[in-house]
Amino acid sequence: MLIDIDRLPKEGLRVSRDFEFLSLDLVEENAVFLEPAHADVTVRLAGDEVYVQGQVTARLSFVCSRCLTPFEFPVASRFDLVYLPEDVDALSEELSDEKIDQMFYSDRQLDLRAVILEQLNLTFPAKPLCSPDCEGICAVCGEIIRDAHCSCLVKESNPRWNKLKLPVRDKS
Ligand SMILES: [Zn+2]
Ligand SMILES: [Zn+2]
Q1: Are residues 83 and 165 in the same domain?
Q2: In the chain, which residue ranges form alpha helices assigned H by DSSP?
Q3: How far apart are CA 37 and CA 2, in angstroms?
Q4: Distance 143 CA to ligand 2 centre (A)
Q5: What separation in Å is there between the alpha carbon of 51 and the centre of ligand 1?
Q6: What is the pLDDT along the chain (172 residues), one digit of tens a residue?
Q7: Distance of CA 52 to the CA centre of its chain
Q8: Distance 153 CA to ligand 2 centre (A)
Q9: Number of domains within the chain
Q10: What is the pTM of this model?
Q11: Neighbour tally for 15: CB within 10 Å
Q12: 8 Å CB contact between 60 and 72
């Protein structure tokens, strides 16, 4: 959705709509949309700066990075952004550290779809977890561990296991 910034009304343009994204567009490769992302934003021009304020909500399905179980991940993110006109000369002159975070628009247009997608991606955790204390999958039996139990942990007191550990201890 391209917004022509020279045609923005003085009081700003209010946009309230759904955005359909492909899972491929997301930084989280195992994410699936359970319903489309919805954005409520106001786009305003002040001088040469474009202000984008609002929120994005979505419902996604993630895969837990520990136990590999799909779980629902709701997104409700507010943002307050400023986009500057892209100045090619200034960009090549000095790409100082503080400028790296700066966001730009070009050709007097702002791609609102790209803005929403970026904000969505920013809400994703680096390692999605179905719950903060997810215990993951047992490396021995391959079962999901729940409350410190899987089928082999129950048998851990079996003396056979203690014998198996002995050679390892001898080596060290
Ligand atoms: Zn999990
Ligand atoms: Zn196990």
Answers
A1: no
A2: 88-93, 97-100, 112-122, 159-171
A3: 17
A4: 6
A5: 39
A6: 899 999 999 999 999 999 999 888 898 888 999 999 999 999 999 999 999 999 999 999 999 999 999 999 999 999 999 999 987 555 555 555 555 568 899 999 999 999 999 999 999 999 999 999 999 999 999 999 998 899 886 655 555 555 554 444 444 4
A7: 19
A8: 5
A9: 2
A10: 0.78
A11: 17
A12: yes
Tell me the C-alpha distance between 2 and 170, whole Å: 68
Q: Examine the domain organization and report whether 24 and 107 are in the same domain.
A: yes
- The contacts of residue 55 (CB under 8 Å, 6+ apart) are 39, 40, 41, 76, 77, 78, 79
Ligand 1 centroid to residue 34 C-alpha, Å: 19
| Cα(151)–Cα(113) distance, integer angstroms | 48
CA distance linking residue 126 with residue 45, whole number of Å: 34
Q: 100, 115, 130 — which closes off a domain?
A: 130
Q: For ligand 2, a single-atom ion, which residues have Cβ within 5 Å?
A: 138, 140-141, 150, 152
Ligand 2 centre to CA of 141 (Å) is 4
